[in-house]
Amino acid sequence: MISMKKSWRCKRIFFLYLLSICVFFPLILLSERLKHVLHLGKKEFVEDLPSIKYRRDGERLSVVETEGDEGLKVPDLVVYRDGSKENPKSNISSGNAADLLGKNGTEHKVKEESNQNPQKILSTTSGGKEQSSLTKIQHDKSIRSQPQRVTDEKIKQIRDQVIRAKAYLNFAPPSSNSHLMKELRLRIKELERAVGEASKDSDLSRSALQRMRTMEATLFKASQAYPDCSALVTKLRAMTNRVEEQLEAQKSQAKYLVELAGRSTPKGFHCLTMRLTTEYFALHPEEQNFPNQEKLDDGDLYHYAVFSDNVLACSVVVKSTISNAMDPEKIVFHVVTDSLNLPAMSLWFLLNPPGKATIQIQSVEKFEWLAAKYNLTLKKENSHDSRYTSALNHLRFYMPDVFPQLNKIVLLDHDVVVQRDLSRLWSIDMKGKVNGAVETCHEGEPSFRQMDMFINFSDPMVAERFDAKTCTWAFGMNLFDLHEWRRQNLTAVYHKYLQMGNKKPLWKAGSLPLGWITFYNQTVALDSRWHVLGLGYESGMARSEIDRAAVIQYDGVMKPWLEIGISKYKGYWSKYLNYDDPLLQQCNIHE
To answer: Is the dihedral of CA 84, 87, 91, 97 positive or negative?
Structure first.
């Protein structure tokens, strides 16, 4: 019994041993085989990676080459350096193209060093793409040579749609088809909101274009609901007339505001005048006198007259004249202002003396004979503009009385800037005439004027005495022969015509038409380069024409010291002012 048990146990152990051998031995063999296979596979996979990568690059290059041979247009790959901000569409210079080509060639050479010939790659890149690249560059150049037009066709279409929609709203009675009316109002609001401040089509969003189509569909429904075209045309014509009336009213208002601004004085100028006046009266009487007053009646010197109540404007005239003069010690300036601005004008030139030149400051109220003989006549002139009715503006017609000891003088308006030496004016032959001035009768020039623009030639007396085709001339820079003026007594002629103009409208307000008839046939034409006008209004003069002029004038309402002045012309005037002056700083007067 015991031996039998031992025999079964041995058999059981033997069967278990065989079973373990049958199960585990194949597993061991299989694992060893898998380990060997994986080792070989990993080695082959790692070794084949470069070849696979370069094979893919080679396939890609062959594709590019094939497409280039077939003439297909493909996008050009342009690689820029770090930090470059160049536009891919901009012209590429030969140097930049060489750099880019060298960089790309080097990159391909590194990539294909083990499998490809670098020379072949370079020829493929430059040869395979050369024709298409040249074609594209030439095409881009031709596109860039054409100016890009800024279109606003869509903007106009939207505005037209809004106008049509408003016409339908005004045309239809309030009780008819209320749903359509609500839809039109909604579409108008949507379009107006979509357009906003856009001025060109590129400013419009996609939603604006979608709303255009929606509005067009609504307008089509409105046209079906209201097919009476004649009534709609009548309504549109009425709307057009109303808009034209509003436009004319706006133009008139704008013109009035510009003229009002032209007559105004900047706040800083008022501040400067008050400060100068206060400091002037703090001076001792002997400190209020100017030097070299013995030269005022010397007929051998160059005398200039300026009549103005604007301190800084007079300062620019005086400084620009002296700065460009060859002999400033021979210059004498006679400045006449009103009693209100006399202290400020005097102190300004005491603080800013005109160098070697001589200056005299007078008040127009000093000339008692002017108030006694001519004041009543001046006040009768029909104008609301003080520039035309002021005694300073008409004082130019009494030059022989203002300067009784002089025989020749140059009158400069306060809105001029002198750019050349003016001493040669005194050597001009006046040919027995009284006034030397630049003509303004040439058509096509900004300063063109005709006598019938300012003078009423429908009056028989005017038509009999004057010729409407007579060449006109300009105030601003005038050379006067005072000796001949006295001999012909032209001041009395002026006074006679002034009284005639007070009785009936013979000419427009101002001194210019009175000057034309007072100095009729008494004017010598100066070369146009002596005096250039038009900087006080948008004349579009060339810079070369301005630079070659001896005197430039800001005639018009857009004076250089006003905010409405034309900015591109202000520099010629402002360079003669020192804006670092403490008084100008305190009054907030800046360039």
So the answer is: positive
Residues 6 or more apart whose CB falls under 8 angstroms from that of 376 comprise none
SS3 state of residue 331: strand
At 507, the pLDDT band (50, 70, 90 cuts) reads confident
The answer on pLDDT for 481 being more than 90 is yes
User: Which among 512, 408, 402, 495 is positioned nearest to 450, based on CA atoms?
Assistant: 512
Burial 147-182 (b: 16+ CB within 10 A, else e): eeeeebebbeebeebbebbbbbbebbeeeeeeebbe
Q: How far apart are CA 12 and CA 423, in angstroms?
A: 143
| Backbone angles phi and psi of 92, in degrees to 5 | -110, 125
Of 393, 401, 188, nearest to 310 (Cα)? 393
- Secondary structure letter of residue 326 according to DSSP: S
In this structure, the number of other CB atoms found within 10 A of the CB of residue 555 comes to 22
Report how far residue 301's alpha carbon sits from residue 315's, in angstroms, rounded to the nearest whole number.
20
List Cβ neighbours of 505 (8 Å cut-off, separation of 6 or more).
382, 456
CB 456 within 8 A of CB 507: yes
Give the closest residue to 434 by CA, choosing from 495, 497, 488. Answer: 488
Q: Which two structure tokens, joined as six digits, stand for 412?
A: 């400069």
**For 293-338, how does the pLDDT look when each residue is reduced to its tens digit (9 = 90+)?**
999 999 999 999 999 999 999 999 999 999 999 999 999 999 999 9
pLDDT digits (tens, 9 = 90+) for 165-192: 888 887 666 566 678 888 888 989 988 8
Phi and psi, residue 433, nearest 5°: -90, 170
Half-sphere exposure of 303 (CA within 13 A, CB side): 23
Residue in the structure block whose two tokens are 């000419």: 507
Task: Report CA Rg, the chain.
Answer: 46
The C-alpha atoms of residue 468 and residue 460 are separated, in whole angstroms, by 13
Mean pLDDT, rounded, of the chain:
78
Q: Is the pLDDT of residue 54 over 70?
A: no
Q: What amino acid is encoded at 225 in this protein?
A: A
DSSP state at residue 80: P
What does 179-200 look like in DSSP terms, one character per residue?
Answer: HHHHHHHHHHHHHHHHHTT--S
* Residue whose C-alpha is closest to residue 411's, from 429, 433, 396: 396
H or E stretch covering 436? strand 435-438
Question: At what angle are helices 118-128 and 94-111 packed, to 10 degrees?
Answer: 140
Spatial strand order of the sheet with 416-418 comes to: 416-418, 551-553, 531-532
| Alpha carbons 74 and 68: distance in angstroms, whole number | 8
Instruction: Reduce the DSSP state of residue 483 to 3 states and report it.
Output: helix
**Structural contact between residues 337 and 363, judged by C-beta atoms closer than 8 angstroms:** yes
Q: Which residues contact 514 (CB under 8 A, 6 or more apart)?
A: 397, 494, 497, 498, 501, 507
* 401: its two tokens: 């009385």
Query: What is the rounded CA–CA span in Å between residue 329 and residue 487?
Result: 31
Closest CA to 389 of 402, 375, 399, 372: 375
Q: Which two tokens stand for residue 69?
A: 């041979």
Burial annotation 203-214 (CB, 10 A radius, 16+ → b, else e): ebeeebeebbee
Strands 435-438 and 477-481: antiparallel
Task: Let me know: does 294 contact 332? Beta carbons within 8 Å.
Answer: no
C-alpha–C-alpha distance, residues 530 and 438, integer Å: 7
Distance from the Cα of residue 118 to its chain's centroid: 57
